[in-house]
Design brief:
- With 259 residues, this protein is of the alpha/beta class.
- 26% of the residues lie in helices and 19% in strands.
- The chain has a five-stranded mixed sheet with strand order 3-2-1-9-10. Strands 6-4-5-7-8 form a five-stranded mixed sheet.
- The structure holds manganese (II) ion.
- Manganese (II) ion (MN) binds at residues 37, 63-64, 131, 188.
Length: 259
């Protein structure tokens, strides 16, 4: 049986992603899940995306940055927010325009087939993977959903990739997460930001908390594109977390942090 790895919010840091692949030595029957936001802000969004697209055992989830690009290119939803503030769309768009038409189409096709949410069971533990929030199980059921699923409304897609239990704006009440028996693996809000606003609900090699007090919501966004706006002795800079879903012999989970 292959192993399952999860990381999130790489934001164009191709070098860190390649270092991660080196470290985990991903085998053909292993799977690496990336919980969205591979583009924008970092040095090589499309180099990273193209590598992901070429690996059958690396699976991408939709993040709000992929949604912003998708909507901008197809003139859907809130198509202009990609260029706003620090979202990074302007820089990515200028690179995207220099790609061939064939590459551009392949990217859009790939994004449209990315996961919105996926449910796994590994070593007897249930995991619910998404960029940030989840689809209401009363409406969508407990199932894997891709971005091109015809049942999806744009508003529901928006909510899954933008709303967060760890943000004051675009807040998602975490109440409903607490009622299920899943560990919710999400990204979207860098742990560096969350740490000073919320109780720690973070899985990371030096910030590990147990999952009894956190409602089973584990944020693994290591803040790749985050400058050190809250420097501390144990975490000065952002980086890339990766978590392995197979339990270690002592019941803990292996993780790494790449800077
Ligand atoms: Mn995000």
């Amino acid at each position: 049986m292959g192993k399952h790895y999860v990381c999130s919010d790489i934001h164009g840091y191709l070098n860190r992603y390649l270092k991660l692949l080196d470290e985990i030595r991903l085998e053909a029957d292993d799977t690496l899940y990336i919980l969205g936001d591979v583009i924008d802000r970092g040095p090589d969004s499309f180099g990273l995306l193209k590598d992901i697209m070429n690996r059958p055992n690396v699976e991408l989830f939709l993040g709000n940055h992929e949604l912003m690009m998708h909507d901008f290119l197809l003139h859907k939803g809130m198509e202009n927010i990609w260029f706003l503030g620090s979202n990074g769309g302007k820089e990515s768009w200028s690179v995207y325009q220099r790609l061939s038409a064939k590459e551009q189409k392949a990217i859009l096709d790939y994004i449209s087939k990315s996961w919105l949410q996926k449910l796994l069971e590994v070593d007897g533990q249930k995991f619910w993977l998404s960029h940030s929030s989840i689809l209401d199980p009363c409406v969508y059921g407990f199932r894997d959903v891709r971005f091109d699923d015809p049942a999806l409304s744009w508003d529901d897609v928006f909510r899954v990739v933008w709303n967060s239990p760890f943000r004051q704006d675009e807040f998602e009440n975490p109440g409903w997460y607490y009622t299920d028996d899943y560990i919710h693996l999400i990204g979207h809000v860098p742990v560096q930001r969350m740490r000073f606003r919320q109780p720690p609900c973070v899985i990371a090699h030096h910030l590990i908390t147990n999952n009894t007090q956190d409602g089973g919501i584990w944020d693994i966004d290591g803040g790749c594109a985050t400058s050190p706006f809250a420097p501390s002795p144990d975490m000065d800079f952002g980086g890339l977390y990766c978590l392995r879903l197979e339990k270690e012999a002592d019941g803990s989970y292996w993780s790494t942090f790449i800077q």
